[in-house]
Amino acid sequence: MNLTRYPQLVDLLAAEYVLGTLRGGARRRFQTYADQNTSVRGAVDEWQRRISPMAELAEPRMPPAAVWEAIERRLGIANAREATRPRTVVETPARPSRSLFDNLAFWRGWAIGVTALAAVAVVVAVRSLLPSATTQPAAPTVAQQPEAAVSHVAVLNNQDSHPVMLVAWDETHSTMTLHPLGKVDVPAGRALELWGIPASGHPVALGMLPDSASGKVPAGQQKPESYAALAVSIEAPGGSPNPNAPSGPVVFSGKLLPVS
Fold first, then answer.
1. What pLDDT digit, counting tens, does each position of 73-116 carry?
2. Is 23 exposed, middle or buried (0-12, 13-18, 19+ CB in 10 A)?
3. Backbone φ, ψ for residue 168 (5° rounding)
4. 8 CB contacts (<8 Å, ≥6 apart)?
5. Distance between CA 48 and CA 174 in Å, rounded?
6. Where are the domains of the chain?
7. Which residues pair with 235 in a beta bridge?
8. How far apart are CA 260 and CA 257, in angstroms?
9. 17, 41 in Cβ contact below 8 A?
């Protein structure tokens, strides 16, 4: 599937990916897309840029003393200091100066410096991943695609809010194209039926889906503007006996959004 044909979907998935709400297999597949496509990776980078300033809203806090004590223990500074301390003191000698590597102030400064250097490295790395404005052409929009005239798109999620199916509605050719985004299990002897959910009123049966959840479904006289969302239910072969409501459980649903 060429995600660059659906820029709004790419933006939506990139936002969910950065926020951490895109999980499981869908997250891994989107990561693969981002690794292979600069336009998808650029959308991820853009959402990271939008969200990263939120960290500046948090008030700075000094770590408690226990943190530095733990660092001393991890580095063995506390043990070394205890081991070199004399057991019986007859005459208190002048305390020798601590070496650089036994200096807690040094380690504090070192930790702060490395943290700042890491932050700079992250910024440089992110900038290097952003597509160049002079060398990378803009991703084609849906309207520029000669083979389809998609006017509306819906990402259908399962009950765990994981995306499992993309529905691209081509109003010009009165067809809906299905793209699976996750695993779609259909119980034996059952079938999937697509429903249009209007802003008010009862659902409308739009057609039966292929068992693979991939392919085209004719839209007939139905118009995408009539529906605010799409849903999929599990029905007996042939669909629900009631054209105005599913008879089986609704397993997927999502908002139907205009492309432009």
1. 888 776 666 666 666 555 555 554 444 444 445 445 544 444 44
2. middle
3. -110, 115
4. 153, 257, 259
5. 37
6. 1-85, 150-258
7. 191
8. 9
9. no
Q: Distance between CA 91 and CA 89 in Å, rounded? A: 6
Q: What is the pLDDT of residues 200-258, one digit of tens each?
A: 889 999 999 988 878 889 998 999 999 999 999 999 999 999 888 999 999 999 999 88
Query: How far, in Å, CA of 47 to CA of 59, rounded?
Result: 23
- Tokens of residue 52, six digits: 């990263």
Q: Look up the CATH number of domain 150-258.
A: 2.60.40.200
**Is the pLDDT confidence value at 134 over 50?**
no
User: Which pairs from 152-155 meet CB under 8 Å and 24+ separation?
Assistant: 152/224, 152/225, 152/256, 152/257, 152/258, 152/259, 153/6, 153/8, 153/9, 153/256, 153/257, 153/259, 154/229, 154/230, 154/254, 154/255, 154/256, 154/257, 155/9, 155/12, 155/13, 155/181, 155/254, 155/255
